[in-house]
Each structure stands twice: as structure tokens, then as C-alpha cells.
Request: fold
Amino acid sequence: MNDAQATPGLSISCQEVVELVTDYLEGVLDSDTAAEIEAHLVLCDGCNIYVEQMRATIRALGNVPVSTLSEDAQAELVRAFRDLRGPTASR
Amino acid sequence: MRHMRSPKPSSEPGPDHHVSARLAAIEPPVIKPPDIKTDDSADVPLVDRLRAGEADAFAEIVRAWSPMMLRVARSYVSTDASAQEVVQDAWLALIRGIDRFEGRSSLRTWMLAILGNLGRSRGVREARTVPLSSVGPAQDDRPLVDPDRFRGPDDQWPRHWTPVGQPRPWPRSPEEATVAAEGRSLLAAGMAQLPERQRRVVALRDVHGLSSEEVCSILGLSASNQRVLLHRGRSRLREHLELYYAADASAAGDRGVGT
Reply:
């Protein structure tokens, strides 16, 4: 084992971090590997930026436009709810 | 509501669906116990409000959950119009069946189980035969990050970023870009380029905020397959943003603005 492999954070390569980033963010890595990635991120600007960009991408996906039921359909569902469940509904 | 992002839905004019007609037509659903477990029982007040007949509480969850439910329903059926009907039927089933909700799962998980039952039977009737894997780009074997951006195996720091290959910080966050009007379609365009399976997983997980367990159950994926698809999809979208920012920066350079 050479020096690089003995130093925490350097036994894992950037290319491996890029492959493991989702498992890391999902929290499914074993604790040794997760700790190794954390140590790597302290030392490595490139990977730090990469992981932060993955996080930013995930956050931004929450702003992607989505479609939903028409206002009319939603209003009609609420009317159905009132008719069947509302205080005055006959059950 | 827990787990849910607040979606910014755009109502789509769709075919005219008459809820009252559908309501008369459908039988009260046979609801299988959900096969997904989630953590919470925090919906109890919401359930109580629904049982008490509070229309506001119902309107609230219709608004919050319908976008996610439409996306889920679209996994089972072949057209947007069918998906809208399945979602409406699921809401009607909830109206009829809320007294039978036993609180062993979250209300949302229960709703997803109803939606899954209705969607699957509708999909069978439509004889939806297009297998997931046949839609979209067939192959996705291009590396997620260009291998040339890493040092070679014989380098002092094998497989670490090269100085040129190392990621550059983005000039502004993609969140800012995507809430701004001109950037709204940026990630949507990136998603459209993903293979179908990746797009579905990313949409349900990251756009609609479902849990990995829920997505595995809806799409019939193993946990590890779900993660692989999520990983490839997210990595591609990060790349999409990186290319956008790089193009933006060089355009700004051409115009003599920026740094």
C-alpha cells in the first residue's frame, strides 16, 4: 500500500466518488466507504464541487413544471366530496 | 404535508371528464393493504378532517397530490387522458373509502395503493404492451463523466480529476435559474433527453418527492435498480446543467460581459 492509499480520503479516487455519489446521498453505503468519501471531499475541491452540483441539481428538479388536473376537474371533485362527506351529506 | 414538495402545477385543458358520471359508474374499490411501509402517522389530523367532511382539507390534498398522482398514473396507462381519469377515480375512491383507512400506513401511501390498483387494471384493459425498456434511447452506455477528465492509471494520483477536467463552480445556482422564467424549461429539456426508465425514476423521486420505497413499488424495481436509474438520470442532468453553464459563460465572454 503506498502513501496515497494510506491517507484517509485518498484511497478512493475521484472517478469512484462520481460513481458512488448517489449511493452516498441516499445513505446506503457502508460506514467505512461513507467515511472515506467524507474525508475525500474535505481534500478534493473537484469532488466537493461535483457533489454540491448533484445536490443543487436535485433541488432544482423540485422546480420543474408539472401538470395537474384542470381547475374544473378539481372543483368537481370537491363538490363530490361535499355531496358525499360534507356535514349535510345524507349517508 | 410531509414528504411533498409544493408543486407549481399548470392546469392542462383536458378532455371533458364528468366526475358525477364517473362516480355513479364506479364501484367502491376493493382496497388491498398497501405493500409499502412508510414511517409516519402524522396524517392523523388530516384524516380526521377528511372524515369530518371538511371540504377545505380535501381541496388541499387534491391540489397538493394530483400532480404526483398524474405522473404515477401515467406509468400504468398509455395516454394522458386515461391518466386523468384514473386520478379522478382514485380521488372518488378515497371519498368513498376514507372510513376504511386504518392508519397503518400514511394516507399518501394508502392513496398510492388505490391509484396503483386502479391504474394497473386500467392498463390491463388498455392492453398496454409497451415494455418500459423499449421506450426512449435504447442504450445508455456513455460514461456519466468523460473518462478524459480523470488522470490515467499510472499517474501519481490515478483516477483523480485533471486540472482541466475538474468541475468548475456554477455562476449561479440552478434553483435560481429554474425559478426564473427563462430557465423553467432547462431541466425539463434535460429530462426529455433521458431514457424513459431514468426519466420516470427521476420524476417521481426528485420532481414529485416520493420515497425510494414508493418508487420501487410503483415501478416494480428492486432497490438497487432504482438507485442505478436514479444515479444515471441525476448524473446526466448535472451534466446537462454543466453544459448549459459552460455555453452561457462562453456566450457571455463573446459579448464581452462577465469575467
